[in-house]
Specification:
Strands 2, 4, 5, 6, 9, 10 and 11 form a 7-stranded mixed beta sheet that branches. By secondary structure, this protein is an all-beta fold. The protein is built from no helices and 11 strands. Strand 7 and strand 8 form a beta hairpin. The protein is 0% helix and 48% strand.
Length: 124
């Protein structure tokens, strides 16, 4: 069965960095794009970043451009989200998700499988 497992969240001070990982199994990993989303308490889910199946197509939300970097290792079935210069407003549960084949971008309705999420808290 399809599984997506996030890791790497935690508590970090403003200006700090974290690296999230999304380990995938149960499907042919390099056939699918992967996206990262986040949801803070009381707020709607927000698309953060997307990477296409080969890694050549990448999208970032304006709120994270220049601070976050998405990458993937198809040999390890893993997608990474490097988060630098973290701000308190980045605090949220971060989810990775698999996009349906032949789709791209950060429309959550185009994603069919989701991980359980990892908490990121940015606070002094």
């Amino acid at each position: 069965q399809v599984q997506l497992v996030e890791s790497g969240g935690g508590l970090v001070q403003p200006g700090g960095s974290l690296r999230l990982s999304c380990a995938a199994s149960g499907f042919t990993f390099d056939y699918y794009g992967i996206g990262w989303f986040r949801q803070a308490p009381g707020q709607e889910r927000e698309g953060v970043s997307y990477i296409g199946r080969s890694g050549s197509s990448i999208t970032y939300a304006d709120s994270v451009k220049g601070r976050f970097t998405i990458s993937r290792d198809n040999g390890k079935n893993t997608v990474f989200l490097q988060m630098n210069s973290l701000k308190p407003e980045d605090t949220a549960v971060y989810y990775c998700a698999r996009i349906k084949r032949f789709y791209s971008g950060l429309n959550a309705g185009n994603y069919d499988y989701w991980g359980q999420g990892t908490q990121v808290t940015v606070s002094s």
